[in-house]
């Protein structure tokens, strides 16, 4: 029986900046991924054709040719259809063995390898039956889930004087990571809220927890007042009772009219404030334990105002932590690179910074916020 989650996620279009984008091609692709009738029919016909060729031209079509449809079936079919297809393939193997009886050790080895590969495919199919999806259907669902995480971290459209972009890099280049970003703006587009979260672990092992937390944190961020977000997120994590159920986070609430901002963090590295007037930078320290450790905690508040030309950097520890040096040295290095943006420009600066501080052994995330200089209009 196919998974309801799979069917819903495959049929639902991916959202970009709050708007559903779906084309007839997307609908066809999702329906094709969800249905296994056509792939099953095509593979059965291919198996029958190879079997018939083996009977008619035994010297040109060896028994090992049936490994091709078996491999394709393991990729294209789910756990419900794959065992039946393997049975059909074994019938073809039986017919070809009768027509091409093995006369030497090499022939016996071909039969053994073919049957052994079929057995391995069946074992893998039974293991995947816990999830209930496989092949293109499972890949489409996982890609859809990944896209939803990414879309939640997309910064909403901002006024022209503001620049805000984020970039995520996972450990080893995997598609899922323990770092994620959730962003939302008020209905009047006068307030921006962004949460940068670092889940315990890294890479795929932390990706499953980030899947759940990104959805929960997105709901909390849009429904609660800024002071209530981190306490509610902490209670949610405590209630999960995970073995490694903690995460660090930093929450930014920015007034887009005045530049006033509020920062609260939970066990997270401090934000870096780039001052345009002096060309210097400062670290915005605040107290607060990591999320998920104790039920009732308080998170200190830091206030400030981004003036025209100023910048703000929020990041995860994977960008500044190094076993060979103190984390403070990593923050100094990041801030020093950030100062260069006053000369090179802030547009695209988040990718420049994360590329210059590239590491592959931990997840990395960076959010760059910049209030552009006022444009002066010269009289004609």
From TrEMBL:
Question: What InterPro entries has UniProt attached to this entry?
Answer: Bact_Sigma-Reg, PPM-type-like_dom_sf, PPM-type_phosphatase-like_dom
Specify whether Transmembrane helix is a keyword of the entry.
Answer: yes
Q: What is the lineage of its organism?
A: Bacteria, Bacillati, Actinomycetota, Actinomycetes, Propionibacteriales
Report TM segments.
Answer: 38-60, 81-101, 107-126
Q: What's the source species for this entry? A: Nocardioides mangrovicus
**Residue ranges occupied by any PPM-type phosphatase domain in the UniProt entry:** 158-371
Enumerate the Pfam families for this protein: SpoIIE (PF07228)
Tell me which UniProt keywords the record has, alphabetically.
Answer: Hydrolase, Membrane, Transmembrane, Transmembrane helix
Q: Which GO terms describe its molecular function?
A: phosphatase activity
Instruction: Please report the name of this protein according to its UniProt entry.
Output: Serine/threonine-protein phosphatase
């Amino acid at each position: 029986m196919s998974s309801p989650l799979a069917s819903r996620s495959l049929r639902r279009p991916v959202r970009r900046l709050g708007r559903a984008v779906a084309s007839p091609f997307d609908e066809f692709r999702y329906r094709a991924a969800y249905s296994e009738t056509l792939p099953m029919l095509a593979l059965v016909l291919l198996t029958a054709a190879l079997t018939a060729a083996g009977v008619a031209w035994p010297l040109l079509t060896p028994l090992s040719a049936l490994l091709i449809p078996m491999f394709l079936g393991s990729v294209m079919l789910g756990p419900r259809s794959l065992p039946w297809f393997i049975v059909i393939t074994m019938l073809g193997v039986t017919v070809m063995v009768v027509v091409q009886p093995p006369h030497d050790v090499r022939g016996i080895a071909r039969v053994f390898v073919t049957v052994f590969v079929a057995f391995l495919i069946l074992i893998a199919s039974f293991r995947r039956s816990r999830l209930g999806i496989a092949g293109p259907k499972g890949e489409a669902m996982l890609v859809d889930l990944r896209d939803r995480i990414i879309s939640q971290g997309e910064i909403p459209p901002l006024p022209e004087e503001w620049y805000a972009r984020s970039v995520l890099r996972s450990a080893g280049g995997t598609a899922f990571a323990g770092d994620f970003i959730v962003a939302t703006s008020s209905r009047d587009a006068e307030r921006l809220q962004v949460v940068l979260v670092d889940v315990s672990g890294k890479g795929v092992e932390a990706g499953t927890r980030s899947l759940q937390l990104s959805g929960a944190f997105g709901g909390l961020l849009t429904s609660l007042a800024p002071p209530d977000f981190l306490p509610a997120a902490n209670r949610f994590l405590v209630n999960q009772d995970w073995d490694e159920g903690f995460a660090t986070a930093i929450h930014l609430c920015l007034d887009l009219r005045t530049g006033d901002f509020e920062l609260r963090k939970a066990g997270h590295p401090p934000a870096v404030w780039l001052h345009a007037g002096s060309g210097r930078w400062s670290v915005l320290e605040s107290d607060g334990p990591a999320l998920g450790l104790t039920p009732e905690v308080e998170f200190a508040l830091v206030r400030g105002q981004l003036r025209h030309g100023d910048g703000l950097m929020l990041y995860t520890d994977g960008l500044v932590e190094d076993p060979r040096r103190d984390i403070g040295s990593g923050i100094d290095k990041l801030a020093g690179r950030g100062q260069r943006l006053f000369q090179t420009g802030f547009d695209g600066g988040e990718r420049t910074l994360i590329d210059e501080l590239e590491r592959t052994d931990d997840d990395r995330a960076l959010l760059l916020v910049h209030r552009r200089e006022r444009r002066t209009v010269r009289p004609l």
